[in-house]
Structure to design on (122 residues):
């Protein structure tokens, strides 16, 4: 299993579309993290980038994120990536919570488009 987390350093980024990178955790069948990979984020809005295809091609099954708009959520889901929104804090800790069955999607969609310098016009 591969779990991606939208990150800024070791922390979950507040907004998926503005993250610095995606930290990909490779997890074995014993639910142990075997390795990590840092995938730098392209500039621009996450929902209009090709990040869903890139993550899918890398074998990512799960994405843990802070806030996210409907566009990005729909694109990721279409690529077979389950999204868990509404998270914050250290990325590795949240992956451990997920592996322990203690993490779920908040179900809350980001409504900040147009705020905080977001300029992708949707």
């Amino acid at each position: 299993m591969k779990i991606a987390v939208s990150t800024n350093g070791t922390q979950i980024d507040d907004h998926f579309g503005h993250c610095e990178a995606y930290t990909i955790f490779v997890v074995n069948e014993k639910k142990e993290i075997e390795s990590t990979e840092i995938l730098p984020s392209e500039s621009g809005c996450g929902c209009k980038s090709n990040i869903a295809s890139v993550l899918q091609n890398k074998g990512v099954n799960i994405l843990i994120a802070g806030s996210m708009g409907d566009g990005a959520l729909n694109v990721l889901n279409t690529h077979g990536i389950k999204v868990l929104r509404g998270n914050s804090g250290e990325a590795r800790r949240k992956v451990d919570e997920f592996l322990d069955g203690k993490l779920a999607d908040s179900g809350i969609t980001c409504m900040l488009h147009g705020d905080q310098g977001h300029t992708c016009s949707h």
User: Anything to note?
Assistant: The chain has one domain: 2-99.
